Each structure stands twice: as C-alpha cells, then as structure tokens.
Amino acid sequence: MPGTFEPLPGGGAAVALDEVEISIIRSLAVQLLELIGPGPAGEAPDDPLAELFSQGPSEPPADPVLKRLFPDAYSDPEQPASPRDAEEQRAYSAEFRRYTENDLRAGKRDNALAVIRSLDALSSASAGEGGAVLKLSVEESQRWLGALNDLRLAIGSRLEITDEEDTDLLYRLPDEDPRKPMVMAYLWLGGLQETLVGTLMP
Question: How far apart are CA 156 and CA 148, in angstroms?
Fold first, then answer.
C-alpha cells in the first residue's frame, strides 16, 4: 500500500503516508488554495440567490497556472482561427467564463480544503507515530482526485509541460537541476492520481 491508493471494501480508498508525504501534500494544497483565492467579495455565505446571480470575470487570468486551471472554453491553441473566428471565440469564452468561473473556483477550493482537512485529521490521530493510513470515502476520494489533478496541472504549468514529450524529458533531468524537486512531486502526484482513479473504477 505505501505510496499507492488501494480500494476499501464497500467503496473508498486507502493509502499509507509518512509524515513527510503528509506535509508535502498539505503544503501544496494550501498553496493551491491561496492561488485560487477567496470567493467573490461581498458574497453572503450559504446564500443561494447571491450565488445564482453573482458573475465572475470575463477575461482569462494573467497567471499561467490559473490560466491552465481555468482555460478558455472556446479556443483551441492547436487550431489557429481566422481573426473573425478568434474574436467570436473570445466573446463566447468571456460569456461562458462570466457565468461559470466562480463555481469552478468554489469547487476547486472545496477539493483543496477536503485534502487539507483529511490530512489534518490524520496527523492528529497519528501524532508521533511517523505516518498513518489515510482512509477516504467515495465522495472524499473524488474530491482528492480533483485536487490531485489541479495540483499536477499547476506544477505542470510551472514546469512548462505541454505534452507527453515534455514529461519524458523530466525523467532525464540531472539531480542538480533546480526543477528536480518539483519534477519529483509532479511524478509522485501522478502515481497517486493514477492509483486513486483505479479504486473508483467499477
């Protein structure tokens, strides 16, 4: 079980994590939470009407990581559009973003918070033991899966990974390369994500 998720009887998943692994995942989740930012200013908590009528930004984020987490809905970098089509795509993307980005951010915040809370509960329960087995329900597993995906997208963006060829190059980085720790985290989170997906398969 060390380093990989395994299915639990009746649903859910479990993984053995040591103190360092718990600390790394928690730190990354906190950084992701800070990057995503708080909810819309002035929005009343648990107010369904406020949520229904609140509008998000219409322009894509300037930060490349946020741009990766919240991409335009109507553009394809691999298929350049004519100036007219590009303008139309920008207009559609702006409209789509205005009505969806707040919800997307809220979902990503909830997933990151779920990871932080489950790790905090695990650390409290296993204080001084050097590690523990994290057990997740099916719902918690899905939140973890979303957060792991976001973390890998964020790290991949910082590493400028755009395709499989870029990923292959990561394995050949020398140990003295300053990107090496980030690469190791990226690959490790990928393994966690892959095994967690396996536990959710019917």
Answer: 12
In angstroms, rounded to a whole number, what is the distance separating the alpha carbons of residues 139 and 123?
Answer: 20
Pairing of strands 6-7, 131-136: unpaired
Cβ neighbours around 15 below 10 Å, total: 21
- 130 phi-psi bin (left φ>0, alpha ψ -120 to 50, beta other): left
Q: What is the pTM of this model?
A: 0.83
Question: Tens place of pLDDT for every residue, the chain, 202 residues?
Answer: 457 999 999 999 999 999 999 999 999 999 999 999 886 544 445 555 555 556 777 777 888 999 899 888 876 656 666 677 778 878 887 888 888 888 999 999 999 999 999 999 997 776 556 679 999 999 999 999 999 999 999 999 998 887 777 777 777 888 888 988 999 999 999 999 999 999 998 7
State the Cα–Cα distance between residues 105 and 160, nearest whole angstrom.
22
Long-range contacts of 116-124 (CB under 8 A, 24+ apart): 116/26, 116/29, 116/30, 116/33, 118/144, 119/22, 119/25, 119/26, 119/29, 120/26, 122/17, 122/22, 123/19, 123/22
- Rounded-to-integer distance, Cα 201 and Cα 17, Å: 22
- In Å, how far are 68, 107, 122 from 91, measured between CA atoms? 19, 24, 46
Integer angstrom CA distances of residue 23 from 19, 94, 126 = 6, 38, 13
